[in-house]
Specification:
The protein is mainly α. It is built from six helices and no strands. Helix 2 (about 20-30) crosses helix 4 (about 50-55).
Amino acid sequence: MANDNSFGKKLKQIRKAKGLTQEQLAELAGVHEKHISKLELGTYKPSYDTLNKVLSALDLEIDKIGLNSKKVSGNNNSFYVKSMQILNAATNEELEFYYGLLKQAQKAKRIFGNN
């Protein structure tokens, strides 16, 4: 996230514009209230999962909020972040397809080892 905490400020503006307290947003997102406070203050860099929960509760997408998705902690790999965005937008049929691919990859990994 930006050092100037522009994301936290924007998150706070959006939360307030929607008439939500930090506690209400935390409840909607299924995260602890302290996560919201720390996000807004810029002292907390959330995992992609936590960030996605908060943005979903606000009915926003990661690309639309002005966050550099490469700076999301937990996994800074842009391929990982884009993959999660695709999975979040996938239909049930697409999710079943992706799940099948993952199961095949896991099987191959067991057969061929960790290399």
